[in-house]
Amino acid sequence: CGEIEENADNVIALYRSQYYDKKSDNLTEFHARKARDGERGAVGFMEWESAYMNFKEMNGDEIRRRLDNDN
Question: For 8-32, what is each residue's pLDDT tens digit?
């Protein structure tokens, strides 16, 4: 047990608040849970398009606007 975490160089976890709260935004956060040669923490954001089971890239301004609306 735990071999994947021990042997992996990088582990990325996804967090999508809409999974827990259907009224929430569909913004998905990508977090580096393990980065052998880098920093851990939030590394990116994308929009989840459930109708297509796809992640859509977003520009920096759109990400900032969406994050500001969450606060």
Answer: 999 899 999 888 888 888 899 999 9
How many angstroms separate the CA atoms of 19 and 57, rounded? Answer: 19
C-alpha 62, offset from chain centre: 15
Pair 36, 56: CB distance under 8 Å: no
- CB of 18 within 8 A of CB of 26? yes
Q: Is the pTM of this model over 0.85?
A: no
Residue given tokens 């109708």 in the structure block? 51
Using the 8-state DSSP alphabet, how is residue 38 labeled? S
Residue 6 per-residue DSSP state: H
The predicted structure's pLDDT at residue 24:
82
Note the Cα 48 to chain centre separation in Å. Answer: 10
